[in-house]
């Protein structure tokens, strides 16, 4: 009798499948809301780890800071220009590449630098500086290098990009810093805010894949491999220049390599969601989204390299001093 009663109950898959189908069907309508919520939560969490004194590094030790700014403002956009000039790519991939080049460093770069025992203060200060600068530099880079690859019916809305950066990046970042100043529990708030942002990031990825708007096989292997190689070249190039040519310390080199290659993918996703609809399998916006998500995943793995190497070096140095 018990088995018969259990057989009458709907299976979990039968219960949740209609809900998932409904979610995937309507996900494109909520893509922008999910992306903006995710970015706000991430910036609140990052801001709650910062204080005004973190930015004193800019004045006290300007050379690594200025070098890191040049990497992001000149080096990476010029590298992107070289790649897109010599390799024929679909226009939506080109726009996605320059979207990456225009983004400042993200909050995860600070986490990786800290765990790798790099110069966390330099990483935090550079993130803050480039985030503020992005209000002007991001529209400029996109308008200068990517506007020609946009479809005729999609202009380069500089005002929209500046609005998105101000509303969903700078204001939440400032509020997070105020929270840090107002309460001793700001670190707890930061952890939960970042965790919530990761949940929304998962919703964004699952929704994009499940709704059919993002097909990870649509570009074959060439373009994903190119995006991964692009991330690795940035990493290795910055490490080589910083350590071998400019003679920066290992801690500074680690911070610069991680900070410059771990872009604020959250902001790129928001701007992409603002500019491009996800309706239709052949839509321009799906290509831009593809670039951002592949690069974001690649940078998580690529940045672990310099962070882990510096961690081992610092631990070995501490052990030898202790001995």
Characterization of the model:
- The chain has helices at residues 2-8, 12-47, 57-60, 62-86, 91-102, 107-115, 120-145, 158-182, 186-210, 222-245, 250-261, 265-275, 284-302, 304-322.
- With 323 residues, the protein is mostly helical.
- The chain has one domain (30-315): Na+/H+ antiporter like fold.
- The chain is globular.
- The N and C termini lie far apart (72 Å).
- The model has no long low-confidence stretch (mean pLDDT 80).
What layout of secondary structure does this protein have?
Blueprint: H1 2-8, H2 12-47, H3 57-60, H4 62-86, H5 91-102, H6 107-115, H7 120-145, H8 158-182, H9 186-210, H10 222-245, H11 250-261, H12 265-275, H13 284-302, H14 304-322
Quaternary organisation: single chain
- Name the poorly predicted regions: none
Strand tally, please? 0
Q: β content, as a range?
A: under 5%
Write out key terms for the chains shown:
323 residues; mainly alpha; Na+/H+ antiporter like fold; 14 helices
Short characterization:
The protein is mainly α and 323 residues long. Helices cover 79% and strands 0% of the residues. 47% of the residues are buried.
